[in-house]
Write a structure and sequence with these properties.
The protein is an alpha+beta fold and 605 residues long. Among the domains are: 112 residues, PAS domain (Beta-Lactamase); 120 residues, 2-Layer Sandwich (Beta-Lactamase); 151 residues, 2-Layer Sandwich (Heat Shock Protein 90). It has 15 helices and 16 strands. The strands form 4 sheets. Strands 2-1-5-4-3 form a 5-stranded antiparallel β-sheet. Strands 11-13-14-16-15 form a 5-stranded mixed β-sheet. It has a 4-stranded antiparallel β-sheet with strand order 7-6-9-8. β6 and β7 form a beta hairpin. It is rod-shaped and about 235 Å long. The structure holds adenosine-5'-diphosphate.
Length: 605
């Protein structure tokens, strides 16, 4: 079962772009702020410039404001007006005015009689001299002659230069003798303005531009003129044109700041092109936009990383789940395997039991069948004592005939012993066939060996086999069955003689014992050919033999091995390093004192 984990949503760049688009309006307030900031800064800077300029202009004008009155009090000028025909006085006045003009920096200073005719002027010696010229039409003359201070802006009728005129009456007591005029050059003030992007503009009371840093704006009307104003312009001719063209100043293009000059009725304005603030605003918006974009990118990256992280977690979880599932499956498999194994073990145990039973039965069957075949050798085994019995009996008869009763009794005793032995062999065979399981008893080892040797003594002697005995004097007691032990020993000795029969002289047979903690080991060694490799492996199997059927049945070692194991001992087959077979009987030691060697037989039958 695989659970589907919620896969994290993928942040698409398209949605990020959409987000950026949604956030773009945020740039608008930024632009507004930047605009406000930069225009504020510009306005502050322009205000200072305007203040400076206004102060400069006012300073220029105020310097000459009171000059006509002061000059009007000079007797030289008054005299010139009182005696206008006296050349010397006029000449004196001319020189005086010229001198004052030079000292004050005024453009022109001139003196007019009550008719407006110029009597004396600072430019008396120049070609465009004002002498004899009449300026009665000028409003400043009228004003001054009326006793007020005359002020006027206008172009010079002779010079064409812009000027500001200050006029005052020259009095003799209360009578007005004439008018003194000081003309200030304003063209000059215009040239003082630097070549900056900001433009300066001075409009007069009519709203007509009289001073400006831009020549194309000069003498244009900043507002529509009414009839009275137009009439005044026609009468006073302050401008080079009688109908000033309209001036259009786009408030979207220019940032305008103005200041009124009450004493002249002028308005001084400073105009800054708005594009001056456009550039820093654009830069600020670009930086803002860039930052926003960067933030978007960072956000995108963060979202991407988060997505990767979530994906990895999901992947890990999936892997863990798969692993758990695999472990679970594996556990199930193992449990299944385990139960199968248990079942198999059970079956095997049962099979083993059956096998053991079958084996047991097989052994039993083997023994039974062996019994039949063994009868041949049994007859051989029994024939020997039988022959001896016969000859002992014959001998006893002869001895009785000769009244040698004691000798005859000895022979009968021997016969009795032999029959007991025979009975023992038969009993053993029966026991073997019947699965004889007599409990082991204490048996003296050396007498058993002697008996076994005695049975084969004749053959051994015939074969000239040298017997080397290395047995202790003291009787060794072992746990065994009298007959069974003798049968085993007899078999082993017979095998040794069989083996030695194949060898030339010297034929030797060694018998030795060794006592250790586990028991007693009896070793039988011959210097025959020894066990073949196969015989070493299989000699214990029933019917394994390397001899012809007449010589052997292959049951000797099989019986010995079974008997030894039944006695709680062991039969070991080996070859001696110096050649020949080495058979070891491992017997359990028994407590001292036991049965008489022959008496024990009856207990086994
Ligand atoms: P059998 O003597 O009838 O052949 P055994 O079971 O007594 O049957 O012996 C099995 C075989 O073990 C023999 O055929 C022989 O090859 C081998 N064997 C037994 N004893 C000796 C010995 N002392 N030396 C060499 N071979 C032996």
């Amino acid at each position: 079962m695989t659970a589907t984990l919620p896969s994290p949503k993928r942040p698409r760049w398209r949605s990020l772009a959409l987000l950026a688009l949604l956030l773009t309006p945020l740039l608008w307030p930024l632009q507004q702020l930047a605009e406000r900031y930069y225009s504020g800064a510009l306005i502050e800077q322009n205000r200072q410039t305007l203040d400076l300029y206004v102060a400069n202009l006012l300073g220029t004008l105020r310097r000459y404001e009171v000059l006509p009155q002061i000059l009007g009090d000079l007797p030289a000028l008054r005299n010139a007006l009182l005696q206008p025909n006296k050349g010397a006085d006029l000449n004196k006045a001319n020189r005086l005015l010229q001198q004052v003009r030079e000292q004050t920096g005024a453009d022109v200073i001139y003196l007019m009689d009550p008719d407006g005719k110029t009597l004396a002027a600072s430019n008396w010696d120049q070609q465009d001299s004002f002498i004899e010229r009449n300026f009665a039409f000028r409003p400043y003359f009228r004003e001054a002659f009326a006793g007020r201070s005359g002020r006027f802006f206008g172009l010079g009728t002779t010079s064409g230069k812009r000027g500001y005129y200050f006029a005052a009456a020259v009095r003799d007591g209360t009578a007005i003798l004439g008018v003194l005029v000081v003309k200030v050059d304003l063209d000059h003030t215009e040239t003082l303005w630097g070549n900056t992007p900001e433009q300066l503009l001075v409009t007069d009371a009519n709203g007509v531009v009289i001073l400006t840093s831009r020549s194309d704006w000069r003498f244009h009307a900043s507002r529509p003129l009414d009839n009275a104003e137009r009439a005044a312009i026609a009468a006073n001719r302050p401008y080079p044109t009688l109908a000033p063209a309209p001036l259009r100043i786009e408030p979207r293009t220019w940032l305008r700041q103005s200041r009124e000059l009450a004493e002249t009725g002028w308005t001084v304005s400073i105009l800054a092109p708005r594009k001056l603030i456009d550039r820093p605003v654009r830069t600020a918006v670009a930086i803002g936009g860039g930052t926003l974009l960067l933030l978007m990118l960072l956000l995108g990256l963060l979202m991407q990383r988060r997505r990767h992280y979530l994906e990895r977690i999901a992947l890990d979880a999936r892997a863990r789940q798969q692993l758990e599932q695999r472990v679970q499956e594996r556990t199930q498999d193992l449990e299944l395997l385990n139960s199968r194994l248990k079942q198999e073990v059970l079956e095997r145990e049962q099979a083993q039991q059956e096998l053991l039973r079958a084996q047991d039965e097989l052994v039993q069957a083997g023994k039974l069948s062996a019994l039949g075949t063994m009868s041949a050798s049994i007859s051989h085994e029994l024939n020997q004592p039988l022959a001896a019995i016969r000859s002992y009996a014959d001998n006893a008869g002869v001895l009785l005939d000769h009244q040698r009763n004691d000798d005859a009794r000895d022979n009968l005793k021997l016969i009795s012993q032999l029959t007991e032995r025979m009975a023992s062999i038969i009993a053993h065979l029966r026991a073997f066939a019947r699965r004889d399981r007599h409990a082991p008893e204490s048996v003296a080892l050396q007498p058993a060996i002697d008996d076994a040797l005695a049975l084969l003594a004749k053959r051994r002697r015939a074969m000239q086999v040298e017997l080397i005995r290395d047995l202790p004097e003291a009787t060794l007691w072992v746990q065994a069955g009298e007959t069974r032990l003798r049968q085993v020993l007899g078999n082993l000795l017979a095998n040794a003689l069989d083996a030695l029969a194949e060898c030339p002289q010297p034929r030797r047979l060694w018998l030795s014992t060794e006592q250790n903690a586990e028991g007693i080991e009896l070793q039988l060694r011959d210097n025959g050919p020894g066990f073949s490799a196969e015989a070493l492996q299989r000699a214990r199997e029933p019917f394994f033999t390397t001899k012809t059927s007449a010589q052997g049945l292959g049951l000797g070692l099989a019986i010995c091995d079974t008997l030894m194991r039944a006695l709680g001992g062991e039969l070991l087959l080996a070859n001696h390093p110096d050649g020949g077979a080495l058979l070891t009987l491992r017997l359990r030691a028994a407590s001292h004192g036991g049965n008489q060697p022959l008496a024990a037989v009856s207990s086994e039958s």
